[in-house]
Amino acid sequence: MATSNSLDALVQALRRLPGVGVKSAARMAFHLLQHDREGALALSQALAQAVGSMRHCERCHTFCEAQVCEVCQDPERDATRLCVVETPADQSALERTGAFQGLYFVLMGRISPLDGIGPKDIGLKKLLDRASDGVVQEVILATNFTAEGETTAHVISEALKARGLRTTRLARGVPVGSELEYVDLGTIAHALADRR
Ligand SMILES: [Zn+2]
Protein backbone atom coordinates (compact mmCIF):
# COMPACT_ATOMS: atom_id res chain seq x y z
CA MET A 1 0.00 0.00 0.00
CA ALA A 2 1.37 3.44 -0.92
CA THR A 3 1.81 5.78 2.02
CA SER A 4 0.86 9.40 1.57
CA ASN A 5 2.49 10.82 4.69
CA SER A 6 4.49 10.05 7.84
CA LEU A 7 1.39 9.11 9.82
CA ASP A 8 0.37 6.50 7.27
CA ALA A 9 3.93 5.23 7.20
CA LEU A 10 3.91 4.87 10.99
CA VAL A 11 0.59 3.01 10.95
CA GLN A 12 1.89 0.67 8.27
CA ALA A 13 5.07 0.07 10.27
CA LEU A 14 3.12 -0.74 13.46
CA ARG A 15 0.97 -3.22 11.55
CA ARG A 16 4.07 -5.38 11.20
CA LEU A 17 3.67 -6.36 14.86
CA PRO A 18 1.93 -9.72 15.36
CA GLY A 19 -1.78 -9.42 16.04
CA VAL A 20 -1.94 -5.71 15.24
CA GLY A 21 -4.58 -4.72 12.71
CA VAL A 22 -5.05 -1.37 11.06
CA LYS A 23 -7.31 -0.01 13.82
CA SER A 24 -4.96 -0.87 16.69
CA ALA A 25 -2.02 0.42 14.68
CA ALA A 26 -3.78 3.75 14.16
CA ARG A 27 -4.65 3.93 17.87
CA MET A 28 -1.00 3.32 18.82
CA ALA A 29 0.22 5.90 16.33
CA PHE A 30 -2.23 8.56 17.62
CA HIS A 31 -1.29 7.77 21.20
CA LEU A 32 2.42 8.10 20.59
CA LEU A 33 2.12 11.32 18.60
CA GLN A 34 -0.45 12.93 20.87
CA HIS A 35 0.62 11.80 24.34
CA ASP A 36 4.06 10.27 24.33
CA ARG A 37 6.51 11.63 21.80
CA GLU A 38 9.39 10.97 24.19
CA GLY A 39 8.30 7.34 24.49
CA ALA A 40 8.02 7.12 20.71
CA LEU A 41 11.63 8.27 20.32
CA ALA A 42 12.79 5.87 23.03
CA LEU A 43 10.95 3.07 21.20
CA SER A 44 12.57 3.89 17.87
CA GLN A 45 16.02 4.05 19.49
CA ALA A 46 15.50 0.76 21.35
CA LEU A 47 14.41 -0.88 18.10
CA ALA A 48 17.43 0.40 16.19
CA GLN A 49 19.77 -0.62 19.03
CA ALA A 50 18.31 -4.15 19.31
CA VAL A 51 18.28 -4.72 15.57
CA GLY A 52 21.89 -3.56 15.38
CA SER A 53 23.27 -5.55 18.31
CA MET A 54 21.21 -8.70 18.84
CA ARG A 55 22.38 -11.85 17.12
CA HIS A 56 22.04 -15.59 17.62
CA CYS A 57 24.00 -17.61 20.18
CA GLU A 58 26.46 -19.85 18.37
CA ARG A 59 25.48 -22.83 20.46
CA CYS A 60 21.74 -22.62 21.18
CA HIS A 61 20.62 -20.10 18.55
CA THR A 62 18.65 -17.90 20.96
CA PHE A 63 18.97 -14.12 20.82
CA CYS A 64 22.03 -12.69 22.55
CA GLU A 65 24.52 -9.89 22.19
CA ALA A 66 27.65 -11.98 22.78
CA GLN A 67 28.86 -14.87 20.63
CA VAL A 68 27.59 -17.37 23.20
CA CYS A 69 24.67 -16.68 25.57
CA GLU A 70 24.81 -16.72 29.36
CA VAL A 71 22.95 -20.02 29.72
CA CYS A 72 25.32 -21.83 27.34
CA GLN A 73 28.31 -20.34 29.18
CA ASP A 74 27.08 -21.37 32.63
CA PRO A 75 29.34 -24.22 33.91
CA GLU A 76 26.68 -25.18 36.50
CA ARG A 77 24.25 -26.36 33.82
CA ASP A 78 23.89 -30.05 32.96
CA ALA A 79 25.40 -30.31 29.47
CA THR A 80 24.18 -33.91 29.00
CA ARG A 81 20.59 -32.75 28.55
CA LEU A 82 19.48 -30.54 25.68
CA CYS A 83 15.95 -29.14 25.60
CA VAL A 84 14.56 -28.11 22.20
CA VAL A 85 12.05 -25.24 22.22
CA GLU A 86 10.41 -23.17 19.50
CA THR A 87 11.03 -19.64 20.78
CA PRO A 88 12.99 -17.66 23.38
CA ALA A 89 9.61 -17.06 25.11
CA ASP A 90 9.16 -20.84 25.51
CA GLN A 91 12.69 -21.08 26.87
CA SER A 92 11.85 -18.37 29.43
CA ALA A 93 8.71 -20.28 30.46
CA LEU A 94 10.80 -23.41 31.14
CA GLU A 95 13.46 -21.38 32.95
CA ARG A 96 10.85 -19.85 35.24
CA THR A 97 9.78 -23.31 36.44
CA GLY A 98 13.30 -23.82 37.80
CA ALA A 99 12.77 -27.53 37.01
CA PHE A 100 15.34 -27.81 34.23
CA GLN A 101 19.09 -27.50 34.73
CA GLY A 102 20.22 -28.58 31.28
CA LEU A 103 20.94 -26.57 28.14
CA TYR A 104 18.67 -25.46 25.30
CA PHE A 105 18.41 -25.30 21.57
CA VAL A 106 15.99 -22.65 20.31
CA LEU A 107 14.53 -23.37 16.86
CA MET A 108 13.29 -19.79 16.39
CA GLY A 109 10.22 -21.21 14.69
CA ARG A 110 8.48 -24.47 13.84
CA ILE A 111 7.99 -26.61 10.79
CA SER A 112 4.88 -25.44 8.97
CA PRO A 113 4.48 -26.87 5.47
CA LEU A 114 1.49 -24.61 4.77
CA ASP A 115 3.66 -21.54 5.34
CA GLY A 116 6.58 -23.04 3.43
CA ILE A 117 8.66 -23.46 6.59
CA GLY A 118 10.70 -26.67 6.43
CA PRO A 119 13.47 -28.38 8.42
CA LYS A 120 16.09 -26.05 6.93
CA ASP A 121 14.34 -22.96 8.30
CA ILE A 122 14.44 -24.20 11.90
CA GLY A 123 18.15 -25.02 11.74
CA LEU A 124 17.73 -28.80 11.89
CA LYS A 125 21.27 -29.41 10.64
CA LYS A 126 22.67 -27.12 13.32
CA LEU A 127 20.63 -28.90 15.99
CA LEU A 128 21.86 -32.32 14.82
CA ASP A 129 25.47 -31.14 14.98
CA ARG A 130 24.89 -29.58 18.39
CA ALA A 131 23.27 -32.75 19.76
CA SER A 132 26.08 -34.93 18.35
CA ASP A 133 28.82 -33.22 20.38
CA GLY A 134 29.43 -36.41 22.36
CA VAL A 135 28.35 -34.78 25.63
CA VAL A 136 24.58 -34.60 25.06
CA GLN A 137 22.87 -37.84 26.15
CA GLU A 138 19.21 -36.86 26.03
CA VAL A 139 17.36 -34.43 23.76
CA ILE A 140 14.07 -33.27 25.29
CA LEU A 141 11.55 -32.15 22.67
CA ALA A 142 9.62 -29.28 24.22
CA THR A 143 8.02 -27.91 21.09
CA ASN A 144 4.42 -26.74 21.53
CA PHE A 145 1.47 -29.14 21.61
CA THR A 146 0.00 -27.69 18.44
CA ALA A 147 -0.21 -29.58 15.13
CA GLU A 148 2.90 -27.77 13.89
CA GLY A 149 4.77 -28.31 17.16
CA GLU A 150 4.00 -32.04 17.02
CA THR A 151 5.15 -32.26 13.38
CA THR A 152 8.34 -30.44 14.32
CA ALA A 153 8.97 -32.79 17.27
CA HIS A 154 8.37 -35.82 15.02
CA VAL A 155 10.79 -34.66 12.30
CA ILE A 156 13.51 -33.82 14.84
CA SER A 157 12.98 -37.05 16.72
CA GLU A 158 13.37 -39.17 13.57
CA ALA A 159 16.51 -37.29 12.53
CA LEU A 160 18.08 -37.67 16.00
CA LYS A 161 17.18 -41.36 16.27
CA ALA A 162 18.87 -41.93 12.90
CA ARG A 163 22.03 -40.64 14.57
CA GLY A 164 21.54 -42.92 17.55
CA LEU A 165 20.58 -40.13 19.95
CA ARG A 166 17.96 -40.53 22.68
CA THR A 167 14.94 -38.24 22.55
CA THR A 168 12.13 -37.66 25.02
CA ARG A 169 8.97 -35.58 24.71
CA LEU A 170 7.27 -33.50 27.41
CA ALA A 171 4.47 -35.54 29.01
CA ARG A 172 0.85 -34.95 28.13
CA GLY A 173 0.04 -32.71 31.12
CA VAL A 174 0.29 -29.81 28.71
CA PRO A 175 -3.12 -29.27 27.05
CA VAL A 176 -3.38 -30.19 23.36
CA GLY A 177 -3.12 -27.15 21.12
CA SER A 178 -1.33 -25.05 23.72
CA GLU A 179 1.82 -22.99 23.52
CA LEU A 180 4.24 -23.32 26.41
CA GLU A 181 4.53 -19.59 26.77
CA TYR A 182 0.92 -19.51 28.02
CA VAL A 183 0.88 -22.66 30.16
CA ASP A 184 1.14 -22.36 33.94
CA LEU A 185 4.53 -23.15 35.47
CA GLY A 186 3.38 -26.11 37.60
CA THR A 187 1.99 -27.88 34.54
CA ILE A 188 5.20 -27.35 32.60
CA ALA A 189 7.32 -28.56 35.52
CA HIS A 190 5.22 -31.75 35.73
CA ALA A 191 5.32 -32.31 31.96
CA LEU A 192 9.10 -31.99 32.18
CA ALA A 193 9.43 -34.41 35.08
CA ASP A 194 7.12 -37.00 33.42
CA ARG A 195 8.74 -36.83 29.98
CA ARG A 196 9.30 -40.09 28.14
ZN1 LIG B 1 23.18 -20.16 23.98
TrEMBL record:
GO biological process terms, semicolon-separated: DNA recombination; DNA repair
Stretches annotated zinc finger (C4-type): 57-72
CDD domains recorded: TOPRIM_recR
Name by which UniProt lists this protein: Recombination protein RecR
InterPro entries found in the cross-reference section: DNA_Rcmb_RecR (IPR000093), Rcmb_RecR (IPR023627), Rcmb_RecR_Znf (IPR015967), TOPRIM_dom (IPR006171), TOPRIM_RecR (IPR034137)
Task performed by this protein: May play a role in DNA repair. It seems to be involved in an RecBC-independent recombinational process of DNA repair. It may act with RecF and RecO.
GO MF entries: DNA binding; zinc ion binding
PROSITE patterns reported for this sequence: RECR, TOPRIM
